[in-house]
Specification:
By secondary structure, this protein is mostly beta strands. It has a single domain, classed as Hypothetical Protein Pfu-838710-001. Helix content is 11%, strand content 45%. It has an 8-stranded antiparallel beta barrel with strand order 1-5-4-3-2-6-7-8. Pfam families: CYTH (PF01928). This is CYTH domain-containing protein. It comes from Segatella bryantii.
C-alpha cells in the first residue's frame, strides 16, 4: 500500500470503555530504523509483519505520504535488530464510530498509561463521529509520535496531561 495518509490523533479518557466498544484487538511491536527525511518503521502485528516509510508532514501532522509493504516474519525479526532505541509495545483496539473506524493504542512498558486514538480520513475537511471516550486532539504534537515515544517515553512527562487521561 502506498499513498497519502490523512489522520487525526486524540487522547482517550481513562477507563476501559474503548475496550468494551472494540470489535478487534491485536498486539503490535514496532521499531524505527534511523533515516533522514522520513520515518522507517518495522512492525509486527500478531502474525504479520510490515515495512512502512512515512514522509514528514508539511501541514502540522495532519497528512503525509506513506508506503507500506508486507514482509516476512523472518525479515521483520532481522530488521527489528537495526531499530534504534528499542521497540514500542502496545495493543490496538478497533472501534467503529459512524462511517469510520478508530484505532486505539493502549501502550505498555515505559509508555504504559498512554492511550491514543487515530482516525484516517479521505480529506482534511471530512467530518466524523467521535466516540464518547475520545478526548482532546493531539494531531501534530510530536510528543505523541510513536517514534518520539522511544526517546521520550510517556512515563517521563505524563504528569503534564490533565488527570482524566492518566
Amino acid at each position: 500500500m502506498s499513498g497519502f495518509e490523512i489522520e487525526r490523533k486524540f487522547l482517550v479518557k481513562k477507563g476501559d470503555a474503548f475496550k468494551r466498544a472494540a470489535f478487534s484487538c491485536s498486539h503490535i511491536v514496532q521499531g524505527y530504523i534511523p533515516a533522514d527525511g522520513a520515518t522507517v518503521r518495522i512492525r509486527i502485528r500478531d502474525n504479520q509483519a510490515y515495512l512502512t516509510i512515512k514522509s514528514h508532514s508539511v501541514d502540522g501532522g495532519l497528512s503525509r505520504y506513506e508506503f507500506e509493504k508486507e514482509i516476512t516474519m523472518d525479515e521483520a525479526q532481522h530488521l527489528i535488530k537495526l531499530c534504534k532505541g528499542g521497540v514500542i509495545d502496545k495493543h490496538r483496539y478497533l472501534v467503529k464510530s459512524g462511517n469510520h473506524t478508530f484505532e486505539i493504542d493502549d501502550f505498555h512498558g515505559e509508555n504504559v498509561g498512554l492511550i491514543m486514538a487515530e482516525v484516517e480520513l479521505s480529506s482534511t475537511e471530512e467530518e466524523f463521529e467521535k466516540p464518547e471516550f475520545i478526548g482532546i486532539e493531539v494531531t501534530g504534537d510530536k510528543r505523541f509520535y510513536n517514534s518520539h515515544l522511544l526517546e521520550n517515553p510517556f512515563s517521563l512527562w505524563k504528569n503534564t496531561l490533565p488527570e482524566e487521561y492518566i
